[in-house]
Amino acid sequence: MKITPLSTVLTLAFSLSLTLPAHATNTFEQGRVLQSANHFAVLSQRDRIAPENAMLNTRLNQLLPALMAEQDLDMWLVINREKAEDPVYFTLVPQPSFAARRTTMLVFYKQADGSIEKLTVNRYPLGAPYTSAWQGGSLDEQWQALGKLIVSKNPKRIGINMSADWPVADGLTASLHQKLMQVMPDDWHTRLVSAEKLVVRWLEQRTTEELAVYPHIVSLARGVIAEGFSSKVITPGVTTTDDVAWYLRERFSQLQLPAWFMPYVSLQRPGTPCLEDTPFCGESGIIQRGDILHTDVGICYLKLCTDTQEMAYVLNADETAAPKGLQAALAKGNTWQDILTSQFKTGATGNQILAATQQKARNAKIISSTYSHPLGFFGHAPGPTIGMWDNQGPTPVQGDWPLYANTAYAIEGNIKHALPEWQNQLVHIKLEQSAYFDGKKVVYLAGRQTEWHLVR
């Protein structure tokens, strides 16, 4: 399918509100400073339906045929029940949809011309873009109708969502699988194959329409962080890290932007335990002047999710900028980002990217930890795992997944830096920015942090 160059999309998206401030002096590419989420529109729940369904139609009509051909599948079955929905189900059905009512059966059949026939075998029809192959009747009649439909199409390879390694591709329950076997001819059982690779590709692949809105979504997340890391929210000596975390949570709620995990805020100051082998340095408490702050937030909007970590510094009364040591620490973090993203090459596995990043970071004498992951319909989406915070070695299966073009990632990890102003105590710079790989380079969807948030 045709993908509009991301550079064109980003130029349009950022030209008005995401330009670098005139005083910026950093030399790192794609640094952007945001001030507030108020600079970005948020659609009402009702107004989100049309664009979400338009993006779904593009995926079903243009992306799915290519992916089913890529995986050599003639049919794909997504069968689930209310209160036990398949993880991939809500990425396939039109909005508004809150459940798989009773037993819901989706049937995708590859036709002779390569297009995909989208069918349902449900008591309750879904409507466009699906055609109802059967509706009404008893549950037993529904299963019999599914069996007859499958036989009438005569597919050679039928993908079902069963996987030992990918949770998102393991949505077909044991009882539903057993029932499916019962309504198919016995000599057809060998036609059933795992659809795990199709599911991963479906979830990780981004379209032109999604890339047009993704920068806006990430900007909302970064804009709320900027509000939280400001004097609007923080009064040094009074405000706690939990106060800031709850501001972020409640601000997202106010904007009707669901957080997919509770925002996290921590602080570092002289005396905070931080050794080279400490996984995460930081503590909670009352925020004081001279503190370093860190947050981790993730939201979903228009079905797409973000994952963002940024750093702030609380100025002392006689300061107008972060100490030089902290500026050097953030620059080292940006250097680590550049090392990581320079390893992104189509076809390289997550484990290969991790090993190359670690070697180059060691050569640059950077104490770092890399644990980046794909983004999309889930905050922790399927695709190539590039390290884990508790495993800096190869990750079986997920780490062996290759990098594809037109996929999105959380560029996540951290570095440690000896801070002269704190008697060379190690400080932990934890960074995470949402980005996109266009097949040649990594582009940050809403820029990245190259300057400290300053609380005055």
Automatic annotation (TrEMBL):
Signal peptide location: 1-24
Domain of life, source organism: Bacteria
Residue stretches making up the Peptidase M24 domain: 232-416
Protein name as it appears in the record: Xaa-Pro aminopeptidase
The entry's keywords: Aminopeptidase, Hydrolase, Protease, Signal
Gene3D superfamilies: Creatinase/methionine aminopeptidase superfamily
GO MF annotation, one: aminopeptidase activity
